[in-house]
């Protein structure tokens, strides 16, 4: 079956699902902050899906007391399944690999792996939200004697094991699998994972369960205090709606880790910076305003004229996007030292009970 036939088959399935309505894709709207309980909320962002262009409107509220930002209402289990489908796997698999290369993920993965070097050689490392296992594949070059396992809800984790990127695959949720993995690992990593979780606090507690005493938890997340989030608005890639459910200010996450019995041993706001803000914003704008792709969740395929326009427009935009991407990488060492740095890393050690 070629791609055109596959899209036609999927369109029938998607349209049947959408005919049931999209209200079930959301939970109830909150009137208080999930982080501190305050009722002082304001709308920070209202947007549509600028990534896949699936139907829906998504709202990010911000707490007036602790500054925690969160999707409200939050996607339900059905909504998560609908919006993740064909993004990292299926139709979107090739695009996900392209983004991995363009955003310099390999460089950041090296930096994340090297962050553990001052604290000894990890024996067993669990990468949570590993996807296709690209981080463990890179980290092996830094820690060749470490056993790397991966955990994810998607089938990509099993593919990662088949390709030898990880030693063992755990498919499911960390919060569900933590009891059977208790005390197994001396390192747990969450690279751009926690912001996807419906309940970050449960994830941090589960990570503590699977860590042995003295083990380390390394986290990288988008920084909602990044100045570019205000400059670009909904075009800021850090919002990544509808997938990013919680955007945690640095201080909130640090205090939460300490309250759970972790000791923060290192922080970094420079290396985790992703030099892709302007390039990503332009790509999102093109996808939103340009001729539509033949996506199966759209009720109708593009017209012949739209198909004819799309290819030359993509080709003409490519050199400009590439040039902007190179410029952002060139100035990244300077940008990462300012409030425009868009991500941060926390390395915390689990203390004995």
From TrEMBL:
<dbReference type="InterPro" id="IPR029063">
    <property type="entry name" value="SAM-dependent_MTases_sf"/>
</dbReference>
<dbReference type="Pfam" id="PF13489">
    <property type="entry name" value="Methyltransf_23"/>
</dbReference>
<keyword id="KW-0808">Transferase</keyword>
<protein>
    <submittedName>
        <fullName>Class I SAM-dependent methyltransferase</fullName>
    </submittedName>
</protein>
<dbReference type="GO" id="GO:0032259">
    <property type="term" value="P:methylation"/>
</dbReference>
<keyword id="KW-0489">Methyltransferase</keyword>
<dbReference type="GO" id="GO:0008168">
    <property type="term" value="F:methyltransferase activity"/>
</dbReference>
């Amino acid at each position: 079956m070629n791609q055109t036939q596959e899209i036609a088959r999927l369109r029938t399935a998607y349209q049947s699902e959408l005919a049931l309505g999209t209200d079930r894709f959301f939970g109830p709207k909150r009137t208080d902050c999930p982080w501190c309980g305050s009722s002082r909320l304001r709308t920070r962002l209202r947007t549509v899906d600028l990534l896949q262009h699936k139907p829906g409107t998504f709202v990010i509220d911000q707490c007036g007391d602790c500054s925690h930002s969160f999707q409200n209402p939050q996607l339900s289990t059905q909504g998560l399944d609908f919006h993740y489908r064909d993004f990292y796997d299926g139709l979107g698999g090739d695009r996900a690999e392209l983004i991995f290369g363009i955003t310099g993920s390999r460089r950041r993965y090296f930096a994340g792996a090297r962050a553990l070097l001052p604290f000894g050689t990890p024996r067993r490392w669990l990468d949570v939200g590993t996807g296709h296992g690209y981080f463990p594949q890179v980290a092996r070059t830094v820690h060749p004697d470490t056993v790397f396992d991966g955990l994810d809800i998607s089938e990509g984790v099993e593919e990662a094991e088949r390709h030898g990127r990880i030693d063992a695959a755990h498919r499911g949720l960390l919060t569900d699998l933590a009891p059977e993995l208790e005390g197994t690992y001396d390192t747990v990593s969450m690279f751009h994972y926690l912001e996807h979780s419906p309940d970050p606090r449960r994830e941090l507690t589960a990570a503590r369960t699977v860590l042995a005493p003295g083990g380390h938890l390394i986290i990288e997340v988008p920084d909602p205090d990044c100045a570019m989030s205000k400059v670009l608005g909904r075009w800021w890639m850090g919002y990544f709606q509808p997938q990013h459910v919680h955007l945690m200010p640095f201080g909130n996450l640090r205090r939460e880790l300490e309250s759970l019995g972790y000791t923060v041993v290192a922080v970094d706001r420079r290396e985790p910076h992703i030099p892709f803000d302007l390039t990503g914003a332009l790509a999102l704008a093109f996808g939103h305003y340009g001729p539509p792709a033949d996506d199966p969740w759209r009720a109708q395929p593009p017209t012949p004229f739209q198909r004819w326009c799309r290819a030359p427009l993509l080709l003409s935009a490519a050199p400009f996007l590439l040039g902007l991407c190179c410029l952002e990488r060139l100035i990244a060492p300077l940008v990462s030292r300012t409030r425009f740095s868009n991500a941060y890393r926390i390395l915390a050690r689990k203390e004995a009970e």
